[in-house]
Design a protein that fits this description.
Layout lengths: L3 H24 L4 H4 L4 E7 L4 E5 L5 H15 L10 E4 L12 E10 L2 E11 L28 E5 L2 E2 L1 H9 L4 H29 L1 H24 L4 E9 L10 E10 L2 E5 L15 H16 L7 H6 E4 L17 H16 L15 E8 L6 E8 L27 H7 L2 E8 L15 E7 L4 E6 L20 E4 L7 E3 L2 E7 L4 E5 L14 H10 L4 H8 L3 E4 L2 E4 L1 H7 L4
Parallel strand pairs: 10-11
Antiparallel strand pairs: 1-2, 1-5, 3-4, 3-6, 4-5, 6-7, 8-9, 9-10, 12-13, 12-16, 14-15, 15-20, 16-19, 17-18, 17-20, 21-22
Helix pairs in contact: 1-5, 1-6, 3-7, 4-5, 5-6, 7-9
Length: 576
């Protein structure tokens, strides 16, 4: 038996080790994707490939790490796993990576000559080949068009890098120096984790650490099951939609989940979701299960330790050939908008069991890629950014504006970094008034970002959502505003682009405007206090016109300051 104090110390130490690995990875990152956006996660796994501890930047990696580790263990026998090795995979089907740019690095942990587990990390690469810069064409029809795919293979053998593997990766990237630099940083972060685990075992004993990790996973599972047991038994369902798959721009993609809760067990059935798509909107089951885990953590306790105990609670059913369980080689590179739609559908279904934690629809995620050759430096570049928008209103709280949320916790790259590293100038970055859906609790605002292109022959790709289907409101709350992507807005050359596409050509002097959606409102807008609406107007979140039309609140200006017209407001709201 492990005493409770030691158990808590080990839990905190494991979390600290993973955080230290993560900090190392971010600080050694060559690309803005890792260094600034922080599109990466680190973890510690046991010999079975189960997550012992993870620092969650991207919750989907809770499913990706075990799937990748399982593939490695199927490929290499225990006797072939040696101290100083490092394994790599980015294959969505033969491994567990979300898509080709997400490369997982796994290094075995040895203590006194015995293999005891893995340290691991997964990080997005700026370019790994494929038909467009950034390897994320919104028009790809199979994974072969999405870049170089590596099954589980050795990247390092007994501390000696395998030069042929690095050469192959570099030869398939438009930014080889950046990709190899990031990859070596991943190996370094994993080595740091190896040392720290060995130090921990030296201090507390190997068996104590192994026993603690088993107990921690068991405790996490028990805590979640205990919470679920307090929910009413029953069945519920939820659905949400993705705009389209990038090929058929007229057909929305449905994500449907039926949830059955009995006692301390909960089952998620995704059989009613749309068929797999021609375009890259598909997502693999390990990531869908991770989305379900994320939703449970959000509803039970956001401070839960992240380990395999969480995944043991989630029971799932999929229909082979569906968008959430596609047949190989269906394209998957724009999986993230679909993953966020999965989370929305699951949260809508779970709202029947935990109504005080329901939430309206949010903006989804976006990935913008500009690539080409810098006319000044004559070097190839890939300008990659990730951002979200407004979150949906939550029960008892407004949505959050211009932020990352749900399954994406990546940061928006600073303007100064973008302008110093790429031939792009950011001319506008501001929140969009009236983009948050009206409600008793208002949806968060989206934002607009304008880019001036400073070099010729730029290739532009976009992977996002919510340009055609607005973020939903709940309980009589209104939808949030849709997003848009416009080239040369308000000119005779204006071009509006769909939410996902690949290889739009831009030239020097073009202006690219990206407008991100706002979140949906929750509750009847007429139940929002007039004083709150007035404050929204003062802050620039809501216009005077929309205050009147959506909230039935009349606001006039006095000495340049907005003031509440209480008499007209009472008339508008039918209280006189």
């Amino acid at each position: 038996m492990v005493d409770p104090i030691t158990l808590q110390v080990i839990q905190a130490r494991l979390a600290g080790i993973v955080q230290e690995m993560q900090n190392s990875l971010f600080r050694t990152g060559y690309s803005t994707i890792i260094r600034e956006s922080q599109d990466a996660s680190c973890a510690i796994l046991n010999r079975q490939g189960e997550v012992v501890a993870q620092h969650v930047v991207l919750p989907l990696h809770m499913g990706a790490f075990p799937a990748c580790a399982e593939a490695i263990l199927k490929t290499y026998a225990p006797a072939e796993i040696q101290k100083g090795d490092a394994y790599i995979t980015n294959h969505p089907y033969l491994g567990g990576s979300p898509h080709a740019p997400d490369m997982g690095v796994f290094t075995p942990i040895f203590y006194k000559g015995e293999w005891v587990g893995f340290t691991a990390n997964m990080a997005h690469k700026s370019d790994i080949g494929g038909t467009v810069p950034g390897s994320g064409s919104g028009s790809a029809r199979e994974i072969y068009q999405e870049g170089l795919h590596l099954p589980p293979i050795k990247l390092v053998s007994r501390l000696r890098p395998i030069q042929e593997i690095e050469a192959m990766i570099a030869a398939n990237s438009r930014t080889p120096g950046v990709v190899i630099g990031d990859l070596r940083g991943q190996v370094g972060a994993a080595r740091l984790g190896e040392r720290r685990i060995a130090e921990l075992m030296e201090r507390y004993g190997k068996q104590t650490i192994l026993d603690c990790t088993a107990v921690l996973s068991s405790n996490t599972e028990k805590r979640v099951r205990q919470a679920i047991e307090t929910w009413p038994d029953g069945e519920s369902q939820g659905e949400s939609f993705v705009d389209h798959d990038g090929i058929d721009l007229t057909r929305p993609i449905r994500i449907q989940v039926k949830v059955k809760k009995t006692g301390d067990r909960i089952h998620f059935d995704f059989s009613g979701s749309s068929d797999q798509t021609q375009g890259p909107a598909n997502i693999r089951p390990p990531l869908v299960r991770a989305a379900c885990v994320y939703c449970l953590v959000a509803l039970v306790d956001r401070f839960l330790p992240i380990n395999q105990g969480l995944t043991r609670v989630v029971e799932t059913t999929f229909r082979a050939g569906s968008v959430v369980d596609p047949y190989f080689p269906a394209s998957v590179n724009t999986y993230m908008p679909t993953a966020l739609t999965v989370a929305e559908a699951v949260l809508r279904a779970l709202a029947a069991f935990v109504p005080e934690k329901r939430i309206s629809g949010g903006s989804g995620s976006a990935a913008l890629v500009l690539g080409g050759r810098d006319a000044q430096t004559q070097r190839s570049y890939v300008h990659y950014e990730i951002f979200s928008g407004g979150t949906g209103a939550r029960w008892s709280k407004d949505g959050v504006s211009a932020t990352a949320f749900h399954l994406s916790n990546c940061k928006t790259a600073p303007v100064e970094i973008i302008e110093s590293e790429f031939p792009t100038r950011v001319e506008r970055f501001e929140m969009i008034p009236d983009s948050g859906g009206a409600g008793r609790w208002r949806g968060g605002l989206g934002f607009a970002r304008d880019y001036r292109i400073l070099t010729d022959e730029v290739r532009f790709s976009m992977r996002t959502d919510k340009h055609a289907i607005a973020p939903f409101g709940s309980d009589n709350g209104l939808s949030g505003a849709c997003g848009s992507c416009i080239v040369n807005p308000d000119t005779d050359k204006e071009t509006r682009l769909p939410s996902r596409f690949g290889d739009q050509r831009l030239n020097k002097g073009d202006l690219l405007r990206v407008e991100r959606p706002g979140g949906g409102g929750l509750g009847n807008p007429l139940d929002r206090a007039a004083e709150q609406v007035l404050e929204d107007v003062r802050q620039g979140y809501v216009s005077v016109e929309r205050a009147k039309s959506d909230y039935k609140v009349s606001i006039r200006y006095s000495d340049g300051e907005p003031c509440l017209d209480r008499g007209e407001t009472q008339i508008l709201r039918g209280k006189l």
